[in-house]
Amino acid sequence: MDRIPILRMGDFLLVTIQVDMHDRLAMTLQDDLTGMIEKTGARGVLIDISALEVVDSFIGRMIANISGMSRILDARTVVVGMQPAVAITLVELGLTLTGVQTALNVERGMQMLRVAIAEKESANASDQE
Amino acid sequence: MAAGQSRTPGILKTYSAELLDEWLKGLNESGQDGRISASELRAQAREFLQLLEEASRHEDMDDLESAEWTPIREFLDGVSRSRAIQGFTSAQTATFIFSLKKPLFSRLQTELGNDGLALAAEMWKATELLDSLGLYTVKAFQKSREDIINRQQQEMLELSTPVVKLWEGVLALPMIGTLDSARTQIVMESLLQRIVETGSEIAIIDITGVPTVDTLVAQHLLKTVTAIRLMGADCIISGIRPQIAQTIVHLGVDLQGVTTKATLADALTLALRRSGFAVTKNKV
Fold this sequence. Notes:
Chain A is about 50% helix and about 15% strand.
């Protein structure tokens, strides 16, 4: 059974979806990713969906769910590289993915995560003082 | 029906010059204006008579769809198209064919004057033929008119949705005209496509040229904004006139979470500030 690889890059986890998602694959990814965050103590998750061309309401909701789960596990999630057709489909389906952070490409997404985590750390530091 | 039974092809062949002259006389009387020159009309009429004569020699005179009638159908397609472009009405275009009846019938009458029954039968055949040809002309005329309208609609859609680059990483879309579902779809697609191509982080939608904003238009705008956000870019809506602002509030449309600015200049200033640019005036 195929899985979507989860790559570790320092504090971040990188998930690149290169194949068309089907429901089973999305469920496996959800399990794997939450497990991986727990195991590695990652601070940020980057989901690259630039190769994803077809979505349905289930996959759309899964993206939102994964993002929410990571947040609870204290890892910021950024979804990057959404294709125009996918964005239009999600909007037409009424899935606005509120609360999910998005970026145009992996580079910008990384930048976003770094800034967000730096802000959080400085906030934590000032709390402790 | 055998070729021998029908006299029409024979008449068309023998009296082609006389028929042409009488036909053109009739055409001129029925008020052809200056849009088409006499020589062009004559050339068209001559070609039609020739094609008709050739086609009518064949067996099935009633079936316009058969292969024998292909040249005449193509000729009529061409004539109708040029008539449509020249601005003739469908009635004028059909008259071109129908006015052949008079000279043709008078020839038939002189040929078959003694035989009433045969004359009636011939006339009926000729009428049927010319009627179907005339109707075919009208059909072709309408089709070419519809083609023109469709093409213009398409051109208008493309014309009215240019995506312009205002600054490095800032795109603008000046919307002009009424927003309906089809147009919003095209606008949304071209804007999102350009965002991907240019990697722009900020898109400004300027609605100065949109005459009215109702709930449907507002909903379309919100959809576009959401789609842009999903792709990881930001969207600013500018060019909201005072009346439009009032309408939006009266309609109860919720524009919370959407950045709005009164003018495109304000929107550009905000976009520049967000992307870390500062505009300063040189000290003189």
